[in-house]
Design a protein that fits this description.
Radius of gyration of chain B: 27 Å
CATH superfamily of the largest domain in chain B: Periplasmic binding protein-like II
CATH class of the largest domain in chain C: Mainly Alpha
CATH topology of the largest domain in chain B: D-Maltodextrin-Binding Protein, domain 2
CATH topology of the largest domain in chain C: MetI-like fold
Structural class of chain C: mainly alpha
Strand order of the largest sheet of chain B: 8-11-7-12
Mean pLDDT of chain B: 85
Strand content of chain B: 5-15%
Number of strands of chain B: 15
Helix content of chain B: 40-55%
Strand content of chain C: under 5%
CATH superfamily of the largest domain in chain C: MetI-like
CATH architecture of the largest domain in chain B: 3-Layer(aba) Sandwich
Chains: A mainly alpha (299), B alpha/beta (558), C mainly alpha (294)
Radius of gyration of chain C: 24 Å
Helix content of chain C: 55-70%
Number of strands of chain C: 0
Number of helices of chain C: 15
Low-confidence stretches of chain C: 237-243, 286-294
Mean pLDDT of chain C: 81
CATH class of the largest domain in chain B: Alpha Beta
CATH architecture of the largest domain in chain C: Orthogonal Bundle
Structural class of chain B: alpha/beta
Distance between the termini of chain B: 73 Å
Number of domains of chain C: 2
Shape of chain B: globular
Low-confidence stretches of chain B: 1-56
Number of helices of chain B: 21
Oligomer: heterotrimer
């Protein structure tokens, strides 16, 4: 009986095999390079003969002045991006779902994905104009409302929020596509039944639609936890300036400047490893908790 | 429970296998010169075995017979053009070095921008897959020195360098010397024309307001105020301001020239009365300059948003007629002033030397002119090749010049082609002075082709073609720099060595400190912050760096 | 679906359409600005005069890129990589997602496999080991270097697993009764029902391959082998203006960064603009789950 089960599973193992080989060669083999994080890496000596210095690389980075500030900035900005980046696409997908004119729906879907293609190099310039305290549209709008103008890109209190909002604007299209695809797979029969029961659209959304896409919401939230130390190098690099280093300098920009003057792969690998471990811990914990308390495997 | 154990076991065994495989692959890569065929080292190994390769002993231009192949990597700028059918591996210069030196230069990879080149080179260095000969910057050179990956060129330089090359390069060898070993040949850049600041003022605005040209810093400040408050572009809008600045302060445009007017030399090492080196960025003169800048910011003479604007953004202020004073190198007219000229032909700019705040003439600072170096990989068979290539380049460019082959022709500029090159800090300045003389005498006969090209462009401008306005202005600016150079009014950065230990570790943090402190003071902070900043700078590594710099200085004076 | 035209419903629709329209406009405005900039003269662009319509219309930035023979070559390389890469990725994604979407009871080791894949998006050894591995496998300078290392897009796999799990279990049982093995079930049942999900993944994969430039830079030795995005990357002159050589100065002077950068961005967005209409029909139609009658 056991044997028959094993045999019936063989096709499944075979299906996974090619993928397994690929990730083994191209992901796991290079992973051995992580040892560099614990070495004083010399290219000539290579990975296996460079001196072992244990946690020195980590200490070097952790003890740098400003490290704590930088770490805090990174987490703060990243968490806000995760939250906002979860809510916006869901809301928009739900709204789009209500649209009956399919040409309009298609049009909006395409257009909102476009900001994804604009690089931060260009967007940086655009944002400086829009957010200018003297001539920018946003501040002119604020003055119409009787409010004082805000130096968005130069004020430490506001800068992180500018980062979050502009990033959400740029990337929410991607999430919307995913949620919309998920929405199409909710069984129409459920809606029909609900209508018969007298539920209005709002109740339908609450009790059918959202639960229907719940798995993917959980999935995407969990995966995004892996980004909690990636606050977005490209964006910050193109938008930050000395006036907002205090609130805007993140782990990656910090390391970037460090490596410009002192191209040390050991340090870069150490920080990378640090980030990976944190991501792994967060995702692992979420997975474990969902499994333990809801008997649900997130993936 | 059993399942968990099995999975962990599997994980561990997988990791072990992974590490073993990685070990095999890495050792293969590490045995650079001795690795088996298929790697570029093979060709070079073959050449090495060819010890029968004879050459006239220590002849600076001695030919290798039989010819040898040297591997290299290259950045070929996007705007470099070749004749039909030619490429970076096949052109007049590659044929020249083959004919004369018996050297075939083979590029393992090439890129089309310096950013890309640096990225690829960093990977190449870290994976120890070095070609025989390649160009590096100071940071990479230090990396290579620490990793002991490049040849010691001290002996071959002494043995093979031609007298002309020695004359050109000897003063700059310290920047490539580590622990007494010469690890690379420096590429001297035309730094005077490229980096020292002049002050560009918009003269049509001066005329509109009836103001005279500035002779002192005070004049300049008056002009700045007038530009801000008196509507110099006469469009009835209060949209102009005096001095352009970008968020990094010393990029482009640069405020270095402004500081120089106060005898302050930020980011530079200067000699004090005791004969020691000090860091210019923490001196009291800097505080004086910052105080004035603060005033300018308060009164709107510097863009209130300069702190968030990068170069591209600041350029817009120029091309949209908002700013009248631009501090930068002699080539500012090429970019962005020419753009403005194209749009607004009535705009006119003139370069002024650094204007002083008191009766002592001001000096323009000039940073270390060495940005790039040429190194040979450790274990390479013919380390003297780099010296010979330099000999040949200097010979063909400055002594036995052959402009029909190496001057611009048919739309291509062959002087891009040689890998190993060098100039003088005043190369472009010399050209400018010669062109100026030729213009005054209306006699271009004695000009070399490079100069003649400039001459022709300026003549075209004088006859009405605004497209070459920039060439004229740049030339004028270079003549001004020449004045200063000749009169000893250029303050050279006194530190010319390789980055020190603490520099490597702390420069990033110290630069951040400087940026934050200066910007904060300019934008309205308390001037006393400066003193706190100096203390911080010293404590965070500045003191150590100063000690190391002075150590180098003492040794270099021997 | 009966829709009630109550007042609140109409109000909501008005608000909804309005809001979505504003949002869509906000999203496209910058791209229009970018397109206009790319078609404007360098002086106008640097003066910040361009808003939504080209000023001093010129095709110079596009000409500058198209004129190089490398341009057409790089387009061909990118097309190859997109086609090969997407086909291989989608194939592998399907093959991996199907088994992993089964319960642990039906497929032991399932969770182990999943974590093996997930682990690879969390941990990586860094640039140099990655480069060395690919080099040692002999893929440098070949199209396979752009296709194979990333051939298993774990994120896509996880999405598809999730999607497959949402399909009713009755399908499996029905297939089993009909005598279909795992292969049959996968190809004849799961795939046709997953078209919206697959369309999404195809879109993501194509976009990913089209825009991926860093691997092209590091893994291709000759610029002749660069994919389009790497090639476009090269025409952007360095931002570090403190150490410009005479050549770089000339480059800067010849073309404004801004117009060329804009042209580059526009070309990057092009495939999505062209591809999206094709894939749309898969998104909009819901699946008919009526395949299984209760």
């Amino acid at each position: 009986m056991q044997l028959r089960k094993y045999i019936s599973e063989i096709p499944l193992h075979l299906m996974i095999l090619p993928g397994l080989i690929i990730i083994f060669i191209f992901q796991y083999v290079p992973m051995a390079g992580l040892v560099i994080a614990f070495q004083k890496f010399h290219p000539v000596k290579g990975m296996f003969k460079s001196d072992w210095i244990g946690f020195e690389n980590f200490k070097y980075v952790f003890l740098m002045p400003d490290f704590n500030q930088v770490l805090w900035n990174t987490v703060f900005i990243a968490v806000m991006k995760i939250i906002a980046g979860l809510i916006a696409p869901i809301v928009v997908a739900l709204l789009l779902n209500e649209v009956r004119i399919s040409a309009f729906k298609r049009g909006v879907q395409t257009l909102i994905y476009l900001p994804h293609f604009l690089s931060w190099v260009i967007l940086g310039g655009v944002l400086i104009d829009i957010l200018s305290p003297s001539e920018g549209i946003v501040n002119r709008f604020l003055s119409v409302l009787g409010l004082e103008s805000v130096f968005f890109l130069g004020d430490n209190r506001v800068f992180p929020f500018v980062l979050v909002l502009s990033d959400v604007w740029k990337e929410f299209g991607f999430g919307t596509i995913l949620y919309l695809a998920a929405l199409t797979s909710v069984n129409p029969a459920l809606y029909e039944a609900a209508v018969i029961d007298g539920a209005n659209r709002w109740k339908q959304t609450l009790y059918i639609t959202i639960p229907g896409i719940f798995p993917i919401i959980i999935l995407l939230s969990t995966l995004s936890l892996g980004n909690v130390l990636n606050a977005g190098f490209d964006q910050v690099f193109n938008l930050y300036n000395p006036s907002v280093y205090k609130s805007g300098d993140i782990l990656d920009t910090f390391i970037y400047r460090l490596l410009l003057d002192n191209a040390q792969f050991s340090v870069a690998t150490a920080v990378g490893l640090f980030k990976s471990i944190v991501s792994f811990a967060l995702i692992g914990t979420s997975y474990f908790m969902a499994y333990r308390f809801a008997n649900y495997r997130i993936f | 429970m059993k399942k968990k154990k099995r999975s962990t076991f599997l994980m561990i065994s997988l990791l072990i296998i992974a590490s073993t495989l990685a070990a095999c692959s890495n050792t293969g890569g590490n045995q650079g010169t001795a690795s088996p065929s298929g790697s570029p080292a093979a060709t070079e190994g073959a050449a090495g075995e060819d010890t029968g390769s004879s050459e006239s002993a220590n002849d600076p231009l001695g030919k290798y017979d039989p010819p040898i192949t040297i591997t290299s990597v290259r950045d070929v700028g996007a705007s470099v053009k070749f004749m039909a059918g030619e490429s970076i591996d096949n052109n007049d210069w590659t044929r020249e070095i083959e004919e004369v030196l018996g050297v075939t230069l083979k590029n393992e990879w090439s890129t089309t921008s310096m950013d890309q080149y640096n990225q690829k080179l960093n990977v190449t260095i870290a994976s120890n897959m070095l070609p025989d000969l390649f160009m590096v910057n100071a940071t990479q050179l230090k990396m290579l020195a620490d990793g002991d990956q490049v040849e010691d060129l001290t002996e071959v330089y002494k043995a093979y360098a031609s007298p002309e090359v020695r004359e050109l390069l000897d003063p700059y060898l310290q920047s490539a010397t580590f622990d007494g070993k010469l690890l690379a040949l420096p590429n001297v850049s035309s730094a005077l024309a490229g980096t020292s600041n002049v002050i560009w003022v918009r003269t049509d605005w001066l005329n509109n307001l009836g103001l005279p040209e500035p002779k002192t810093m005070n004049d300049l400040l008056n002009i700045s105020q007038a530009f801000t408050t008196q509507d110099p572009d006469q469009n009835n809008q209060d949209d102009t301001f005096g001095i352009a600045a970008e968020k990094g302060l010393f990029g482009y445009p640069s405020l270095a020239g402004f500081f120089n007017g106060f005898h302050a030399y930020p980011n530079s090492w200067i000699k004090n009365e005791a004969g020691e080196l000090e860091f210019g960025g923490i001196q009291p003169e800097v505080k004086e300059a910052l105080a004035v800048l603060q005033e300018l910011y308060k009164t709107g003479q510097i863009d209130r948003e300069f702190g968030v604007k990068d170069t591209t953004k600041v350029n817009e202020s120029v091309t949209s007629n908002k700013v009248g004073i631009w501090i930068g190198p002699t080539w500012a007219p090429f970019f962005p002033l020419q753009d403005l000229k194209n749009n607004s032909p009535e705009s006119e700019w003139k370069a002024f030397p650094i204007l002083s705040v008191d009766d002592q003439p001001a000096k323009a600072q000039m940073p270390n002119p060495i940005n790039n170096f040429y190194t040979m990989k450790k274990g390479t068979a013919h380390p003297e090749v780099v010296v010979k290539l330099m000999n040949l380049y200097v010979d063909r460019s400055f002594i036995n010049t052959d402009f029909s082959r190496f001057g611009a022709h048919d739309g291509v500029e062959p002087w891009h082609y040689p890998l190993v090159q060098t100039l003088n800090p005043d190369t472009d300045i010399v050209y400018a002075v010669n062109v100026e003389k030729a213009l005054a005498n209306n006699n271009p006969e004695s000009l070399v082709p490079t100069e003649k090209e400039i001459f022709n462009k300026i003549v075209a401008y004088q006859e009405g073609d605004n497209a070459f306005w920039a060439d004229k202005k740049v030339n004028d600016a270079r003549v001004i720099i020449n004045e200063q150079w000749v009169n000893g009014l250029i303050e050279m950065d006194q530190f010319a060595g390789a980055p020190t230990e603490t520099m490597g570790a702390k420069t990033a943090a110290l630069d951040k400190l400087i940026s934050e402190a200066y910007t904060s003071i300019i934008m309205g902070g308390n001037l006393n912050e400066f003193d706190a900043f100096v203390t911080n700078w010293n404590n965070l590594g500045g003191r150590d760096i100063t000690a190391e710099v002075n150590e180098w200085y003492k040794n270099s004076q021997k | 679906m009966i829709s009630r035209n109550s007042m609140s419903r109409i109000l909501f629709q008005v608000f909804n359409y309005g809001f979505l329209m504003i949002m869509a406009i906000l999203c496209i405005l910058p791209l229009i600005n970018v397109l206009a900039t790319s078609l404007s003269s360098s002086s106008a662009a640097t003066a910040g005069q361009v808003t939504f319509w080209p000023v001093d219309f010129t095709l110079k930035s596009y000409e500058f890129m198209f004129n190089k023979p490398e341009f057409m070559q790089s387009v061909w390389i990118t097309v190859q990589r997109v086609v090969l890469g997407t086909a291989i990725s989608m194939g592998l994604t399907l093959l991996i997602a199907y088994p992993l979407s089964k319960n642990s009871s039906k497929f032991r080791l399932r969770t182990l496999y999943v974590w093996l894949f997930v682990f690879t998006i969390l941990f990586n050894g860094g640039l140099v080991p990655w480069y060395l591995t690919i080099r040692n496998v002999g893929l440098l300078d070949s199209i396979w270097a752009l296709v194979l290392p990333g051939a298993v897009p774990v994120f896509n796999v996880i999405l598809l697993i999730n999607f497959f799990r949402g399909l009713p279990k009755e399908l499996d049982e029905a297939a089993l009764i009909d005598g279909a093995g795992h292969w049959g079930t996968l190809w004849r049942i799961y795939v046709p029902l997953s078209l919206p999900a697959m369309a999404t993944l195809v879109l993501l994969t194509v976009v990913g391959h089209w825009n991926s430039w860093f691997d092209g830079l590091i893994l291709m030795n000759s610029p002749a082998n660069y994919p389009l995005s790497t090639y476009l990357q090269t025409v952007i002159v360095s931002q570090n203006l403190t150490s410009l050589t005479a050549d770089q100065m000339k480059e800067l002077a010849e073309l404004s960064n801004r117009t060329v950068k804009s042209a580059q961005i526009f070309l990057a967005a092009l495939p999505i603009l062209l591809l999206y209409p094709f894939l749309q029909k898969y998104f909009v139609k819901g699946m008919t789950l009526g395949a299984v009658k209760e």
